[in-house]
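Listing 4. Sequential folding, example run.
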Amino acid sequence: MSIWRPLWLLLLILLMAGCSERDRPLDSPVTLQGEIFGTFYQVTIADTLTQREANALEEGVQAELEAVDAAMSTWREDSELMAFNEAPLGEWQPLSDELIEVLAIGQAVADASDGAFDMTIGGLVNLWSFGPEARPREVPSAASLSARLAETGPDSLEVDEQARRARRLRDVFVDLSGVAKGHATDRVAAYLAHLAATGRSAGTVTLDGEDAAAVLNQAAGANLETHPESTVDLLASDLGMARVVEDLFEALKTKGVLAEADLPAEARDRIAGRRTLRGGQS
């Protein structure tokens, strides 16, 4: 008997064992986790997955997060946001639809909160050594703080949604840390919802305390079959608006514009439930 036959047989057995391992069902729920934006993410799937399916799902989730990181990170010199921060003052800069969308949301919350939420405070964040600027860990001088504070403000940033462009009117450093992670969470939730529309159960997403649940109403099955993309887009929009409304309420409450007692009982219950869920992720 040729020596090659047992060798080929051994190779075949090993390959089959490898395939079998990848197709083995994992214990439910399946948790995927990793690092992004200098913090962590976690995705929990209630459905039963094989190792092969979990690997493919993890690649998809990572791709969604990497896309947001490439557009909105202040820690990557090659990000779209950093290029915008270094662009000449007063000159319109064409930006991606996604970055324009997040900048517009940030400006809307800034306007509604009378400046309590401000994306242009990146310079102050850097001055306190919490941003990407390399500097000693020391208390900044009053003069430095006053100089940078004078530059900040929502009116130093102009966003033209129609033309998909934006410009800095003063030398501010736009920092999307207050909104980009929530956007990334919603984006992953929409990705899971898209999978749910094709038959896989959705899951929950956590990114540094930002949480979202990708939930799909299977009772709308006929509509899903006919218009799956529009259903997913609407769900993604609803998820994003839920976070915007929640953060807007907290900002208005902090400013004394609105009290929780002013809301209907059902709205108070929902806000309390969300606050409990988010507190459990800390």
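-- end of first protein; second protein begins --
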Amino acid sequence: MKTTRSTTNVDSEDISQNDEVSPSTHSGPSRCYARSLGGCGTRISKEHYTSLSVLSQMDELLVSGAPWHNSNEPRAYSPSSLVSKILCREHNSALSALDTVGGEFYRLASNGLDPRTPSSVVHGRLDGHALERWLLKCLCGLLASNAVGTCRRDRWEPPQRWLGVLFHAEPLPTSWGLYFLIGATHPVTTTGRSIQLAPVFADEQLSHLIGMDGQLAGIPFRLVLDDITLWEPPPDGTELGLRPAGLRVESSRGQASIQLDWERPYSPAISIHADDTPHTTTIPNVKRKGPA
């Protein structure tokens, strides 16, 4: 099975800020992508399609793969630039707790890999379902704002099942959910502070969305939102672990131990070995693939 990814990368670098603003894609009172749930307020809010709780932890943001770029070369942005009017204030506020969880996961993982922080063992405990829902929120934000260049001319709306998971914590079907790659050494940036998000489609027409993959601070993940058999198999020498009981990220300078609480964990806690020598931010099986 060949899948297609439309990738947005955000990397942290020590350079000055550039306040260029991305173009707005929607207008009108019905821009909230959760409007089908009802309860929308009268005012639309500016939503970070990758949460501010993560972006604010980076020294500076280099973004590549965005549709308003003329090339794939990274360009500098400030966090206030990476927003779009895609949620009303009421629905935006209802998801604020998920942003906190996403930011804490990123803090724990990146502090364990950033050579500028004192070498130590970092421990944390998070709600795994909230982390899963936060990634779903990021996916909805990327697509509703067209920040990944899917070139959709109509206004994108999440499936009702996704909205139920996102706003009402409804369960996902068996075999759907958050997976981590197990069994390989993964390259990370020299700072450990980067994020790559790639909506994944089962077809070249970008009409059958099946989830998202990418990396958070060098940790590869898959958010599976359709039949797992529609996905490409993981790279050789790796396997997928669904909803693990925890993560232990190890590098030459220390480790981060993150316990994940699930109503029912499907996988034991896993170890991820990070090669923190200088590398690019390419993570296996994340870059966009062309037609077969």
